């Protein structure tokens, strides 16, 4: 009588050696955590610079309002003071909006750079994990085939 093949044992061996690559998972987690840290740093730096611009703008505005609110000798001086304040505010607004735009541009460039680097890292991690899994599965299949003979 021919020897019966032990499919249960063969499947148990195959499942027991099914590759679970925790190192690849750890590497992917570390890559994600590092990327999140860098993105947070970009956002926090932008928030800090924006706050500095806003605070300076507010301080300058309040200072100019104090000058504008001082008593004047001639009624025409009030109109001139208001006109000077308005034109100074328009100029400062343009400067500050340009500064905010520079911050936004830097955030965009840094984010794109980080995403491209992270995509490369994720791609390398995934390629390494798939290669290892393929190698392990090939070895397992060969072992199972040899055991079945």
Shape: rod-shaped
Percentage of residues assigned to helices: over 70%
**For the residues shown, what is the average pLDDT?**
82
Helix and strand sequence: HHH
Give the C-alpha Rg: 33 Å
Low-confidence segments, given as residue ranges, are: none
Spatial separation of the terminal alpha carbons: 16 Å
Q: Structural class of the helices, strands and pairings?
A: mainly alpha
- DSSP helix count? 3
Write structural notes for this entry.
- The model has no long low-confidence stretch (mean pLDDT 82).
- Helix 1 (7-16) runs antiparallel to helix 3 (75-148).
- It is built from three helices and no strands.
- It has 149 residues and is mostly helical.
- It starts with 6 loop residues before the first helix and ends with a helix.
- The protein is rod-shaped and about 115 Å long.
- Helix content is 88%, strand content 0%.
- It has helices at residues 7-16, 22-68, 75-148.
Summed up:
The chain is mainly α and 149 residues long. The protein is 88% helix and 0% strand.
Notable features of this structure?
149 residues; mainly alpha
Task: Chart the SSEs and their pairings.
Elements: H1 7-16, H2 22-68, H3 75-148
Helix pairs in contact: 1-3, 2-3
């Amino acid at each position: 009588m021919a020897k019966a093949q032990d499919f249960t044992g063969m499947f148990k061996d195959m499942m027991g050696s099914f590759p679970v690559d925790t190192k690849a998972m750890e590497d992917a987690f570390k890559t994600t955590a590092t990327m999140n840290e860098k993105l947070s740093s970009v956002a926090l730096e932008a928030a800090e610079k924006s706050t500095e611009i806003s605070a300076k703008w507010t301080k300058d505005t309040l200072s100019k309002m104090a000058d504008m609110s001082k008593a004047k000798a001639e009624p025409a001086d009030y109109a001139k003071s208001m006109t000077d304040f308005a034109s100074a505010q328009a100029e400062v607004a343009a400067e500050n909006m340009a500064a905010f735009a520079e911050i936004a541009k830097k955030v965009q460039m840094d984010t794109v750079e980080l995403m491209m680097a992270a995509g490369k890292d994720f791609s390398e991690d995934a390629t390494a994990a798939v290669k290892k899994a393929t190698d392990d599965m090939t070895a397992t299949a060969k072992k199972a085939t040899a055991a079945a003979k």
